[in-house]
Amino acid sequence: MTVGVIDIVVPFYGRVDYLAETVDSVLAQDDPAWRLTVVQDGEHAGLTTSDWERRRSDPRVRWVTNPHRLGLPGNFQRSLDLVEHDWCVFPGCDDVLLPSYVRTVRQVLSSRERVDMVLPGVRVMDAESSPSTPLADRVKTLLRRRHGRGDLSGERLATSLMHGNWLYFPALCWRSARITPIGFRQDLPTTLDLALAAQVVLAGGVLALTEVEAFRYRRHGLSESSRAAATRARFAEEQRLFEELQASFEAAGWTDAARAARWHVTSRVHRGLAHVARLWPTGAPWASAPGAR
After folding, report:
1. pLDDT band at 289, cuts 50/70/90?
2. Whether the predicted model's global pTM rises above the 0.85 cut
3. Fold adopted by 6-279
């Protein structure tokens, strides 16, 4: 498969210093076939200094400021609307791409005839950029290791994701033509990633896995995902999504996936741990674990 430029689109609504790391990691790619777009949702201090002008001077970098604040799901949809190439990725504005990210993804794609998503190896880091292994990410690693490398699709992939969402959405490279007609759900601000992946799988999408590490995912207490992770609204939203997906899988005849969506085991466990943490916020065994959220 011939693979061209990859659109790297960063929805920005966080810390300027983290964003600087993200942008610099893109500029450091050892494969030049990329185009970076930063989508600024509202005004942020510190973005008009000479240092930022230096970063913007690369012709492959563009900066888009929304005329008014769209919020997280709206900014993701705006980011998707700005994609112009066949492949795209949406890193968090606090994540870091290793210099090999674009090269790794393009190598995977060039060796496959039919792929719609590529997930490279991911390492988790904390707020200070040190390696971190929170419980949630240890679970993700175990779930992913069941599949190793290669391609996944259909009911097998759907069932696995319903048991536990082990994807790292910010590291996923997508076929633009697959996700543009679907878009990001505006009514699912904390689960829009799983909702999109599930719809791609239902539409026949294929996920390619490689164990080559090419991405650093930052998990810290100030991130959007961490702030939302243990809220009642998050779990109510998850419940609604799983019920919708159960119905979709049943309609497709995917009985195993429907059963997994009905039980959504890891989500239930997460909800239970969050409930106990609210009752026992300082003495819970996991509360003092490095990187625990």
Report:
1. very low
2. yes
3. Spore Coat Polysaccharide Biosynthesis Protein SpsA; Chain A (3.90.550)
